[in-house]
Amino acid sequence: MTDLKRIYQSDLPNRAIAVYLYLRGRANKEGICWPAIPTMARELKMSESTVRRGVRDLEKAGFLSVEERFRWNKADSSNLYVLVGQSSEKQLLSK
């Protein structure tokens, strides 16, 4: 089952589905991307708190892995997002 089929058949709220599709569209071949929350909020036309809730929903449901990142001076940087299962599915489909 593809990642999109699984996400559409899940009981996730619309905010989580929108965030997933946004991240999927910006992810590299390995399913990794690092957009900032304010950027996602602006482009999705959602509040930052709604985007954060969508990310948490995806993480709890097992669709997303989030790694917090920090700059050399310990200031916040954008998170690293990994779409769980996407890279392995792409490898299977390419065979």
Description:
Helices cover 53% and strands 11% of the residues. By secondary structure, the protein is mostly helical. The chain has a single domain, classed as Arc Repressor Mutant, subunit A (Orthogonal Bundle). Strands 1-3-2 form a 3-stranded antiparallel sheet. Helix 2 packs across helix 4 and helix 3 crosses helix 4. The C terminus is likely disordered.
Topology (elements, then pairings):
Elements: H1 3-9, H2 14-26, E1 32-33, H3 37-44, H4 48-61, E2 64-67, E3 80-83, H5 86-93
Antiparallel strand pairs: 1-3, 2-3
Helix pairs in contact: 2-4, 3-4
Coarse structural class: mainly alpha
The largest pleated sheet is described as: 3 strands, antiparallel
- SSE series: HHEHHEEH
- Using only C-alpha atoms, the radius of gyration works out to 14 Å
Count of separate DSSP helical elements: 5
Oligomer: single chain
- The order of strands across the largest sheet is 1-3-2
Question: Taking all residues together, what is the mean pLDDT?
Answer: 86
Helix percentage: 40-55%
Low-confidence stretches: 87-95
| CATH-assigned homologous superfamily | Winged helix-like DNA-binding domain superfamily/Winged helix DNA-binding domain
Binned strand content: 5-15%
CATH architecture annotation name: Orthogonal Bundle
